[in-house]
Design a protein that fits this description.
A hairpin with a 4-residue loop joins strand 4 and strand 5. The radius of gyration is 21 Å and the shape is globular. It has a four-stranded antiparallel β-sheet, with no helix packed on it. Helix content is 58%, strand content 5%. The relative contact order is 0.13. Helix 2 packs antiparallel against helix 3 and helix 10 crosses helix 11. By secondary structure, the chain is mainly alpha-helical.
């Protein structure tokens, strides 16, 4: 793609074709959220009060992990103002929905809404963007990481999906803490700590074995589900000079019943075009995008996207390609030569500056 447009430009083209109700809050989304909340409470009570076989506890943990993740997807929607608009109610419901994932509403809105959405795939400003070769040259830690063989690194990268949302949330608390006004910092910290206090308190009430099945294992499962989506949202796309959702975002496809249970979280390009619209209407937005810009829109099955992530590195080369510096292998990104069905690479010439960095990485 040689030209870029802002998300507002695309939204202005599509908006006339959308019904007015698509731009209104959709509080009915809370009914499924209530089902998840009751499932979580019931699952924790069953594990805590009954001496069940480990197999039954594991099965309940899987259901809890799925529910934790789904509540996070709902919290994401709530805190975009697409379910209710009253600020205090929005933040309260968002806090409840994000409670299992231990993320507070003020931090999330600052990190996700006000920063990630505004500066998507900007290396310097997007806190979720992956680094380029220039950052590799500046970071001893990154150079050490990229000495690890690619296949081993890919294995650990996918294993880390079980903890990455939690880890990144903690990192974002430190990253944004000073950007809040002093009077709000205590609130942000309290919102972040209260879920952890409650979950750690549960440990002392029910004991480690029950706590493992009622919180820790579900949290790992929820992290993996959430990060499987988040990892495919942008990490196959290029870094961009303009926040163009059709260039910097990927929508994945999953079975319709999964879309229903996950609040249409798979429609990520659509979300970046209309972040203040209920995801209930994203299938309609997708129809218009594919009609108006079929050659710009990126979508693929979830498993295919995850496989492409496994087969490619997470370090950018000249903004629109991905590079494995130790071997000097350069892969395309979506819209820039990446074919997920047949992933290929080319070699960096050793005489280039990037090639010299690759040589230094080998040391």
């Amino acid at each position: 793609m040689k030209e870029f447009h802002s998300f507002g430009w695309y939204a202005a083209q599509i908006s006339p074709y959308l019904p007015k109700k698509a731009f209104q809050p959709t509080p009915s989304r809370l009914f499924l959220g209530l089902v998840y909340l009751l499932t979580v409470l019931s699952g924790i009570l069953v594990i805590s009060l009954f001496d069940l076989h480990v197999i039954w506890n594991t099965l309940i943990s899987v259901v809890l992990g799925f529910s934790f993740a789904a509540l996070g997807f709902l919290g994401h929607e709530i805190l975009h103002g697409t379910v209710v608009r009253t600020p205090w109610l929005r933040d309260f419901l968002g806090a409840v929905a994000f409670w299992p994932l231990c993320t507070g509403p003020k931090l999330w809105r600052k990190w996700h809404n006000a920063t990630h959405h505004v500066h998507t795939q900007n290396e310097e400003k997007d806190p979720d963007a992956w680094p380029s070769m220039s950052k590799l040259a500046q970071s001893r830690l990154l150079r050490w990481i990229y000495k690890i063989p690619f296949t081993i690194r890919a294995f650990f990268a996918f294993s880390s999906l079980t903890i990455m949302f939690t880890f990144h949330s903690i990192r974002m608390l430190g990253y944004f803490r000073k950007q809040f006004q002093p009077k709000n910092r205590a609130i942000v910290f309290l919102q972040f700590m209260l879920p952890w206090i409650s979950w750690i308190g549960l440990l002392f009430i029910v004991g480690f074995a029950n706590w493992f099945f009622s919180f820790l294992l579900p949290l790992l499962i929820a992290n993996f589900i959430v990060m499987s989506y988040i990892s495919t949202n942008h990490r196959l796309n290029p870094l961009v000079p303009v926040n163009d959702p059709l260039a910097n975002s990927l929508s994945v496809t999953v079975p319709k019943w999964v879309d229903f249970l996950h609040f249409n979280f798979s429609y990520h390009t659509e979300h970046h075009l209309f972040p203040s619209m209920s995801s209930k209407y994203y299938p309609l937005v997708k129809e218009h995008i594919k009609r108006m810009w079929p050659d710009r829109y990126h979508e693929m099955p979830m498993l295919k996207a995850l496989w492409a992530l496994w087969k490619t590195p997470r370090l950018y080369y000249q903004q629109n390609e991905l590079v494995e510096p130790r071997q000097g292998n350069v892969y395309g990104s979506l819209g820039n030569g990446l074919n997920p069905s047949s992933i290929e690479y080319r070699k960096i010439e050793r005489g280039t500056q990037e090639g010299r960095i690759s040589s230094e990485t080998d040391r």
